[in-house]
Amino acid sequence: MTLNLTNTAKTYGDGTKALLPTSLNVDTGEIVSLLGPSGCGKTTLLRIIAGLETPDLGGKIWFDSDDVTDLPVERRQVGMVFQSYALFPNMSVRANIGYGLKMQKLPKSDIEARVSEVLEMCQLNDYSQRAVTALSGGQRQRVALARAIAPRPRLLLLDEPLSALDAALRETLRDELAILLRKFNITAIFVTHDQNEAMAIADRVAVMSEGEIVQSGTPEELYRNPNSTFVAGFVGSAMHLAGKINGSKLTLVGGELLLPSDGTGCEAFVRAENIQINKNGPLSGFVDAVTFLGTHYRVGVSGVVSETITSIFSGTKVPKLGEKVRLSVEPQSILLLPSKAQK
Amino acid sequence: MFKSKTKLLQLTVTLTACAFLLIPTLMSVLAGITVNYFKGVSSGLTFKWVLNVWELYADSIFLSLWLAIACLIVTLIIGLPAAYGLARHPGWLSRLLEEFISLPLAVPGLALALALLQLYGTLNGFRTSWTFILVGHVLYTLPFMVRSILAVLAAMDLKTLEEGAASLGASPWQRFRDIVVPNAMPGILAGALTVVTLSIGEFNLTWMLHTPYLKTLPVGLADSYASMRLEIASAYTLVFFILIVPLLMAMQWASARAQRISQ
Fold first, then answer.
1. Domains A3-234 and A239-342 are alike in CATH topology
2. Where are the domains of chain B?
3. Labelling A168: which of B8, B119, B156, B215 has CA 20 to 30 A away?
């Protein structure tokens, strides 16, 4: 199913603009992530698509060629996975998963067959008769997903589906979720504030900030060609090289760098993996943090710009704390973005 | 040595307190099955008085049971949607309403009864019917029902649960039936037992509202103390205990269960 959303905004009673007029297209089978910091309107947008919030007048929501703007949630045929899972504590795992099918008034045998199929798909067979209160966080998350997809919804919506889990489990389930979503072969939108999650799961990421979608594209596009300082910072944590730009020359506290092109009216950003520790580098600073991360070190260097910048170091002879180091940055790895003031 | 002395002291205090509470009760019950109370237990034991109570006051027993059931039904019909509404729309207005419903707890039963008499006392058919007492009982027991259900509902994320059910295609009524009511059940049970127990035991209000033809169990008890032999009144106490103690125990159990859930 394709989702088409035009001019959709949400203003709350007290005048807060949670969502500015937004348009969004999601193709059949596409998995799109709404990524942004808390309060950026991503959950509001998801809830509008689900039918749990009414958009301001003028907004239109289309599922294929059906205008669903005025349909209540129970008639939109969406599957929803909530942050807290919202499993029904009064029902067993089986009954939870079968509830949507029961609402469709399917014959008992069909419900049983479909529930068994979904249990199988989500590897929940061993838990089907359990009370939902007797499940672990990861199992609950799968039950919530199974319950949402069992009625074969037109669109699957996931609101921070992994954020209630602890860090170690989150990473495992992230990959598991990515595989499951593709196995279901369903159009899905999921909300997250975690860029790694968005990149790992989604075909396309829509980055949101202050009530609007600022950029939408594949994870690679967003990472390599961010269109704003916000996206560069939020996706892949690019660091701001705050200094004076003169033509294609950037003057920083700790030295000078060449820019890939004329940077007038722009700001320069760079990612940690593009900063090399190089004894012939044009920048100099002092090591003030070294973190060993197994495959590489993260080295914090101060004195290059006003804040500490981080470099990824993958050799073994890591510089010591307080040591003076020289850094180099390839011009083509510097991101030149229009400065905020001009936007 | 010190430890055992403290223990001894504790035990003595506990036993004394129990005796203080239990002995009058036991004496009263014993009086109800003694042939002649003034001669003492040596005059023999009998169920005559209990039978006498049954002959004289069976109507009161049935009226009380009937009133309790009617009161339960009415408080459920009003209380469940009220608690649901209050839980779904938290805010100052809901708090205010909750306090307002709870007002009869703070006002003496006599005052409540007086207000009812002033307002409806002249409506003859109503004044002399059992429904008049029912209104009093509902007013008095409703806050217990509402609060008991509200405590359980407030402890869960009702809004999200309902949204979950809605996203699966459940209409508002189906959500209420499948999600709200089953999950509120511990609160409903605790509230129901409280309402029945209070309704059966209520005296203050009922004494003001009753007519000679409508004596509830406690009103009948007062009547028997005032106008019957002490043995009959005591046997009445025994009957009262038999009815109310199991209810009281069930209520304790249900409340403890509901409280566990709402924590």
1. no
2. 47-261
3. B156
CATH class of B47-261: mainly alpha
Which of A72, A84, A103 is the closest to B168 by Cβ? A103
Residues of chain B neighbouring A86 (CB-CB closer than 8 A): 157, 160-161, 163-164
Domain ranges of chain A: 3-234, 239-342
Edge-to-edge strand ranges of the sheet holding A204-209: A78-81, A155-159, A188-192, A31-35, A204-209, A212-217
Instruction: Round to whole Å and give the CA distance between A216 and A32.
Output: 9
CB atoms within 10 A of CB B252: 13
Give the pLDDT of chain A (343 residues) as one tens digit per residue. Answer: 899 999 999 999 898 899 999 999 999 999 999 999 998 999 999 999 999 999 999 999 999 999 999 999 999 999 999 999 999 999 999 999 999 999 999 999 999 999 999 999 888 999 999 999 899 988 999 999 999 999 999 999 999 998 888 888 888 888 888 888 888 889 999 999 999 899 999 999 999 999 999 999 999 999 989 999 899 988 888 899 888 888 888 888 888 888 888 888 888 999 998 998 888 889 989 999 999 988 899 999 998 888 889 999 888 888 889 889 999 999 888 998 888 754 4
The reply to whether residue B157 touches residue A86, judged by beta carbons under 8 angstroms, is yes
Give A-chain residues touching B164 at CB under 8 angstroms: 80, 82, 86-88, 147
Segments in A160-218 forming alpha helices (H) = 167-184, 195-201
